Amino acid sequence: MLISSIKLTFRSWLRNQMFAIISLLSLAIGFTCTNFAVTFIIHEFNVEAANPNRKKILFMSQDSPMRSGEKVSYVSAPIAPAIKDMFPEVEDYLRVNSALITDVIVNKTRFEPINILQADESLTKFFPYQALYGNLMEALTDPNKIALTISAAQRLFGEENPIGKHLSVNTGGFMENVPPQITYQVCAILKEYDQSFLHFDGITKLPSNYNGGICMLLMNKPVDREAFANQLKQNKIQTFQGDIGRYYFSTLQENYFQEYNAERIPHINRQNKLLLYTSALSAILIFLIAGFNYINLNFSRLLQQVKMIHTQKIMGASKRDINSQLFTDTFLTVFISFCLSFLFMHLLLPYFNEVMSGKLTIGFFFNKQVFPVLCGFVFLLSAIPAWFVSRKINKLSLQGYHEFFTGKKRRIIISILSIAQFAISIALIMAMLGVNSQVNLIRQGGEGYRDLIQIGEWQNDDGNALKPFVAELRSRPDIEEITVAQSSLFHGYIRQTIIRSETGEENYYPLQQLIGNNRFLSTFHIELLQGFSPEEAVSHYAHPAYINERFATVFVKDGENPIGKPLDSYDENSRRPKSESTEQTHYTIAGIVRNFYTNSLEEEVLLTTILIDNSDDSYFYVYIRLNPEKPEQLTTIKEIYEKHNPDKYFTYDNVYQAFIDRNSKTFEFSSLILMYAFISIFLTCFGLFGMTMYATEQRTKEIGIRKVNGATSLQIIYMLNRQFIIWIAIAFIIAAPITWYLLNRWLESYVYRTSLNVGICLIAVLIVMAISLLTVTWFSLKTASQNPVTALRDE
Known about the structure:
Helices cover 50% and strands 16% of the residues. With 795 residues, it is α+β, with helices and mostly antiparallel strands. Among the domains are: 1-47 and 271-406, no CATH class; 54-256, no CATH class. Strands 1, 2, 3, 4, 5, 6, 7, 8, 9, 10, 11, 12, 13 and 14 form a 14-stranded mixed beta sheet that branches. α14 (466-475) runs antiparallel to α18 (632-644). It is globular. The model has no long low-confidence stretch (mean pLDDT 82).
C-alpha cells in the first residue's frame, strides 16, 4: 500500500509540475534558513559543550580605568595567584595572552603571522585539548617549544611530520625584553574541537615577564559570584582604580556574548547576541513565507484531490487507503524539501559563516546536539500537517469544496496568509534599507582613510632603515602623501583622563594622544576647523598641537578661544615625556580639527590631541596614501622597503579596512538582513507565481466572458492585480510602524547614527509592489491574450 501511495503521489506531482517544484523549493529554502538558525543557536549557546569543567570556570573582568561604567577583561599578572592563596574554593587559575608577531618562517619560507596563545601550564585543567601527536605539557613548560593545531601544522608544514621541526617568528622587536626573533620546536599537534572558547593556531608557555591579560579561575565548588566579588573588594585585591574599582565574574557562556568597547582579543571567540537573535527571527519569518506559499499553493490542488478521493471511493478504496495516500503526499513534500535543504546548506555554509562570523562545519549538523532537534522539527512539520490534511480532505465532498472555495472563510484565509507574506517582505526590505543607511554613515566616517596604508613596526630600528626608506619615498613623484607617526592610529597611546562634575563626582574618559609630522593632517584628510595649518603653525609655535572638537567641548569654556594657549593648561599630562635625547616638551594649541573616528560609531569619539614634531625622531609608523589609478605604487613601495630592510618580511595594514573591522558588527548585521531580504523577495515571487496561476485557472471562464463582452487585456490585468495591491497596502500599514520602531531601537545603540526617513518606507513598499505587479502581470498578460472562445470551450 505504501508503494502505491508513493506512486500516486509522484503521478500527482507530474500532473502539477509547476506547483510541485514551487512547493518543494519554497519549503527547502525555508528549511535551509531555519536549520541554519537552529544549528547556529545550538552551537553558540553551548560554548565548551565538550568541556566537563565549563560550569566551574569563572572569567574575570574589572572596571575600566578609561571610561566610567565600562569593564575590561585585563587582569594584572599577580592578582590570580594572590586570589588562589587567599580563597580555598579556588582550585587553580589560568592566565593567557597572545604573542605579537609579524610573520613566521619555516624552512626559509615566510608565512603570514599565526595566532600563538601563551598560557599557564594549568591550561589542560581548564580546557580538554588533546594531542594527536606529541606532548602538550612540553609546550606549556618549555618556552622554546610550541604545540600547533592540526590546521596550522598543515598550513606551515604541508604533509610533512612537524614533530621536532622548528619554526621562527618575527616579533618586530617592539616589545621590551622580547627578542626580535624567536625559534620554537614543534612538540605536539593538537586536535581542534567545535564550540571552543579559545581561538589559536599554536600554544606556548606564558613568558616570565608577563604583565597581565585574560584570567580565569577554576572553582572546586559552586559560589555566589556577586558575594565572591565583594569578598575580593573587602580583602582589598588591587584593581586599576584602586579602592574605587571592583572585579566581576562571569561564566564562559556569558562572556562569549559579552561586549567590551574597543577591546580586541584575538585568542578568545566571541559572538554578537543581537546578530544571533536577528538571524533566528529572520529565519522564522522566511520559514513562515515558505509555509504560506505551501498552503496557498495547496488550495490550487484541493479540487483535484477531492475529485481523486471520490474516484478512488467509486473504485473501492477504503477510508484508510485514502488517508494513507493524502498523508504520503504531504509527508513526502516536507521530507524531500528537508533533504534538499541539506544540499543548500552544504553549498551556502561558507557564505553563512562569513556573514555570521561563524565556525559551523557540515559535521556539526549531524552532531548529537543538533541532529535529533532537526529530525524532531521535520517530523512535527510533516506528520502533523499530513495527518490533518488527510483527515480534513477525506471528509470534504464536491459540494463542500465548492462552498469552501467560493465562501468567505477561504477568502479570509488566503488574504491573511498573503498579507502576512507581504508584510514580512516589506519589513525585511525596510530593515535592509535602514541598516544600510547606518553602514553608509560608517563608510563616510572612514572615507579619509581610504587608500591609506600603514607600515610598521619600527621600534627596534633606531632610524637606520626608517629614515632612508621615508626619504626615498618622498623623492618619488608618484608618492603624493606620506607621513610618519609615533603610534598606530587604531592602537595608539590612550591614557586616562579624570573630569570632575559640578558635584565633585569623578568620571573617567580615554584620551588619545597622536604624534606626527606636519603632513599628518593632510595625509589622514583631517579637516582643520579653526587655527593655523601645520605648515603655518611651525613658524608661529615651537611645538604646535591640535585638539579635536570633543576635546574642545569638554575642556574649553564657552566663548573661550584656545588657539595660542598651552595645551597643558587644559590637560596637565599632555607634555611629551623627557627622554635620554630630548627634554620634556610643552605644546601650544595651534588649531581645532573636526572629530574623526578611530573606533566603532557605537562609542563616542575619543578626546584627541595631535602633537606636531618634524624631527623624524622616535617615529615607528609610516602612512602612505596610494593612488587607486596607479596599482603599481604598492610594488614600488615593497621594492623600496626590501631594499632598506633586506631581512624583513614586507607587510602593511589597510587603514580603511582596519576602521571597517572596528565596525564589523554593523556590516555583519547588514549582510545578514540583506541575505534574508533577498530570500524573502525570492520566495514571495515563487508564491505570487503560484497564486497567480491558481487565480487565473479558477477564473478562466470569467476572463473569457469579460473578453467576449469587450474587456481589454489591460482591464483583465487590472482585475487580477487589484487584489494584490490591496493586500500590499494592508501589509504596509502593518509592517511599517513595527519595523520603524525596531530600527529606531537598534539605532539607539549608536552614539553617531543615521536618521530614518519616510523614503525607506516608500522604497520598501514600491520594491514589493513592483516585483509583485511584474510577476502577476506577466502571467495575467499570458492568460488575457488567449482566445476567449478557446477558454470558454476548455472550461
